[in-house]
Design brief:
2 strands, alpha+beta, 3 helices, rod-shaped
């Protein structure tokens, strides 16, 4: 008895990257893209998952910096604001609440 020939095709890493990049430009569903290009849908989904998992993160690891505010007078600050502007363009504003006088 003769063994059945497999129709499975093995793709190199560069071929997988080509198909994933081509899909990003394609503007259609993964199902339609795979059908149009003769790719196995389940395999293509695995390529996409693996690419997401192995993609190096562009985000820097979170670090914490302690900030200390110096008070310019002996009276408590009354509604002062601290503003931090990050290189990404994000601005963080922190407004202090007036402290009740006793």
């Amino acid at each position: 008895m003769m063994a059945a020939m497999s129709n499975r095709r093995h793709f190199t890493q560069s071929e997988r990257e080509y198909w994933l990049a081509h899909f990003e430009k394609h503007q259609s569903t993964a199902t339609s893209f795979c059908r149009q290009h003769g790719l196995c849908y389940q395999t293509f989904l695995r390529w996409r998952r693996d690419a997401r998992i192995n993609k190096p993160s562009s985000a820097a690891p979170a670090t914490f910096i302690e900030l200390a505010l110096s008070v310019r007078s002996s009276t408590p600050p009354m509604g002062e604001m601290v503003e931090l502007t990050f290189s990404s363009g994000l601005t963080l504003r922190i407004q202090s609440q007036p402290t009740p006088q006793s």
